[in-house]
Input
Amino acid sequence: MMSSLDEKPHYTPLLSQLPSNHQRDHDGESLTPPPPPYVDESLIWKRRFYTLLVSSVTVILSLTAAFTYHYTSYPKSYSSTCPILPTTGDNPEVKIPFLKIAPAPVTYTNKFMNTDPDTSKFLGEPRPELDKAWHDLLDGTLIYFSEDELKKAGNAVSISREGGGYVGGLGVSHSLHCLKRIKQYLHPTYYYPDISTTPGNETWSDLTSHVDHCLESLRQLVLCTADTNVYTLHWTDHSTLKPSVKVPQPNVCVDWKPLHRWMKGRGVGFREMVHPASHHFGQKKPSSSVASEPTATPEEEKSGKEAEVVTGSEYDS
Output
């Protein structure tokens, strides 16, 4: 058994012999790296903030420049209400219609097509209420244009107006006129009772050709202004053989009332048209250069619907 004398004494190094944090090697170089220099973190965040600020200002200025260039390069005569139209590669440039250049108050509204309060006036059999509704709708068909306005319409030429200016109309008037003609064509015994016997009246062949022209005109217009609203099909108690059609979303429509007021304010009557012929509408032309007013046909006198039309600004030919 070992005695206490045989035990090795415990060695404790002196404090001065412990390795220091800056112990050097034999060449005098420090064996441990010095502590990193102090960095103010607030400066780092300031640099990041100013970098982000400069980037944001650059983007905003770029967008502002692009926006300004687009609208300053857009033709001044175009209405601000007219949208920029997407085009195809074959047709890279779409010309804005004359209506966007004329001083007509063209504004737009959303409208469900089955909520027109005037619908009942235009449905059903011929009657004074229906004839008056069509007459009121077509009031302002013939309107006055200045020379400058016709120049904007592609240097168009039209019949001169007594006292200056020219007589013309808008495309909507021709379409409405065609619809009226088709409606009357559906009721020949009421609107054309003596079409084959009254001298100077249209023949059935003339009338059919006119209606055919109107149908073709409306066909092209429907394709030109193709309505891309979605419609849905539903079975109802009243549609057991064929489903009913519904349009769940509103259309984007020209606000008709202010446009029609503008048209009526520019309305031009037949008497204001300068006509070069010696006879006009079956009557002898007076000594002045103004066309005389036409007389109503017997069937027009029967209903009284056209007697006031010929003195107004509705063109029904």
Q: What stands out?
A: The mean pLDDT is 73. The beta strands are 108-111, 143-145, 159-160, 166-168, 232-236, 239-246, 251-254, 279-280, 283-284. Residues 3 and 9 are 13 Å apart (CA to CA).
